[in-house]
Amino acid sequence: MRDAEPDERDDLPPSKTRMKKDMHALQELGEALVALSDERLGRVPLPDSLRDAVLEARRIKAHGARRRQLQYIGRLMRLVDAEPIRAALDVLEGTSREAVARQHRIERLRDALLEDEGVLTQIAADTPGADLQQLRVLRRNALKEREADKPPRAYRELFRILRELDENEEQPEWDR
Questions:
Q1: Which of 102, 119, 154, 175 could cross-link to 141 by cystine, CB 3.0-4.6 Å?
Q2: Which uninterrupted H or E stretch holds 64?
Q3: Torsion of CA 34, 35, 40, 44, to 10 degrees
Q4: Homologous superfamily of 16-93 in CATH?
Q5: What HEC string does 88-125 produce?
Q6: Under DSSP, is residue 53 helix (H, G, I), strand (E, B) or coil?
Q7: Which uninterrupted H or E stretch holds 23?
Q8: Quick check: 22 and 16 in contact, CB under 8 A?
Q9: Burial of 57 per CB tally in 10 Å (0-12, 13-18, 19+)
Q10: How many other CB atoms sit within 10 Å of the CB of residue 1?
Q11: What residue ranges do the domains of the chain occupy?
């Protein structure tokens, strides 16, 4: 049976080792859910029973009881499709392709803004709620920090503001 064809192996049930690895992976996913803040947990699509189990695991402090609760969460995870949960966690952690691409777009916008103040008019047109005065001050401070070789505090703050604007808008023109 060593030389079995690939389609013959596909018909076989998963091995006990594979099933244990899958169960441990689901339990680790549950542990990641327990570690999330309330705000981030609210963004993850979970059935009510799983959400309640995660909240209960946060409350438990005793090591043995917490371990059993995490195993219970792992069992509940077997009953749901874990892929949407993994995808939501990847987005929250910034490891998904979409999150990385979004971060790069915002970084490019920040660099373009530092190079040319005219980008502010485009931001104003695309995001009516943008505080242009604050963006202008942060731009000026970031340029001064760069010239004086100081830590990039305003540079980072500018990124944070642009990221918030991106989150609040559907899809601004500069994000397409």
A1: 154
A2: helix 63-78
A3: -40
A4: PSPTO4464-like domains (1.10.60.30)
A5: HHHHHHCCCHHHHHHHHHHHHHHHHHHHCCCHHHHHHH
A6: helix
A7: helix 16-35
A8: no
A9: buried
A10: 6
A11: 16-93, 97-175
50-101 pLDDT per residue, tens: 999 999 999 999 999 999 999 999 899 999 998 999 888 887 776 667 777 8
**HEC per residue, 26-48:** HHHHHHHHHHCCHHHHHCCCCCH
Residue 154 has phi, psi (to 5 degrees) of: -65, -35
User: Which amino acid makes up residue 173?
Assistant: E
In three-state secondary structure terms, 139 is helix
The reported pLDDT for the residue numbered 172 is 44
> The whole model's pTM is what?
0.53
* Whether the domain at 16-93 and the domain at 97-175 fall into the same CATH topology: yes
Quote the CA–CA distance of 38 and 169 in Å, as a whole number. Answer: 23
Q: Which long-range contacts (CB under 8 A, 24 or more apart) does 131-139 make?
A: 131/161, 134/161, 135/161, 139/113, 139/114
pLDDT in tens, 34-49: 998 888 888 899 999 9
Backbone phi, psi, residue 15, to 5°: -70, 165
| Superfamily of chain region 97-175 | PSPTO4464-like domains (1.10.60.30)
